[in-house]
Amino acid sequence: MIPGLIGVVINSPDRIDLLAGFVGRWWRAGLPAHTEIFPALNGSAGCLASHLAVLESHPGPLLVLEDDAVRTAAFTWDVHPLPGWDVCWLGFHAYIARDPHALAASMRGLPTPRPN
Predict the structure, then answer these.
(1) What whole-number distance in Å separates Cα of residue 90 and Cα of residue 63?
(2) Of 17, 24, 31, 81, which residue is most buried, by most CB within 10 angstroms?
(3) CA distance 94 to 113
(4) What domain count does the chain have?
(5) What share of the chain in percent tops pLDDT 90?
(6) Which of 5-9, 45-49, 109-113 shows the lowest mean pLDDT across its residues?
(7) Domain residue limits at 78
(8) 65 part of a folded domain
């Protein structure tokens, strides 16, 4: 697992069933020691707004999972991103952001400074 990785699960407060299913699917995979639940934002743009809020409120590296993320039996945390990586997509509803604030700025269409 990437050192210092923080996990966030985006879950709608009125969908405890999805959170329970998530825990059942991911518990044995060994989530990061610091994993928290983020209450999903509602509305037509709630999904994007939730991801932006999570990215803008956490330092990196950050694992972001939606409550309906599914892992395969072959899933492993043996992830080794290439030097200079920004985002490691683990699947449709899961990714790791090295610099969450820069990713959020990029998603908003704002310029993001690149390290030399």
Answers:
(1) 9
(2) 31
(3) 24
(4) 1
(5) 31
(6) 109-113
(7) 6-107
(8) yes
